[in-house]
Amino acid sequence: MLSLLMQGEYEIFVMLIIAIVISLSFHEFGHAWTAKKFGDNTAERMGRLTLNPVAHIDPMGLLMVAIIGFGYAKPVPTDPRNFNSPKASLWISAAGPAMNLLLAFIFINLLVAAHIFQIDYLTTDGPQLFLQYMAQINLLLMLFNLLPLGPLDGHYILPYFLSRNVAYKYVQWNAQYGSIALLSLIGLSIIGVPIFSFLMSIARTLSSFLVIF
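-> structure tokens emitted (213 positions)
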């Protein structure tokens, strides 16, 4: 990301930051909204049931986005004692990636519709780039958060698809080694291993299935 500033690509830098902030905010809102639907208003009481980025963006996470292109938002707090369903954790965890999928669907189709219906403003370079970034970033966020490692949403989702014994062992393993494994993946990506490039290639493939026009 800093390389964009060094190359004078200020508009692209700003577009990416805005797209990431919006995407992360919708992701966390998805968690908060679903938690309330399953009986837990902890996030609402802490001001997280909102699309306002100020409530969700972590300053250090945003700084990391600006420096290395990867960051994080504040996790949405929940209290499992308030859940009204044994599968509440599954749906609350899945809601964040699902929100990113919804945004990707919307922006991909806006991109296509702009050309089909000749919406002049949306076919200019700036809006076209922003629509592309929103679609790609949201698909990438969805895929990344579905990884069953560390604190990512995927580690809450995976146990529901495993046998009880395997799920128990997985939860123990993730508690001990999941965060280390996740940080290792991020570190490998920073030094040049194309982990995020691989996820992005999957995102591009998925995008073709989201077009309805």
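The chain has a mean pLDDT of 92.
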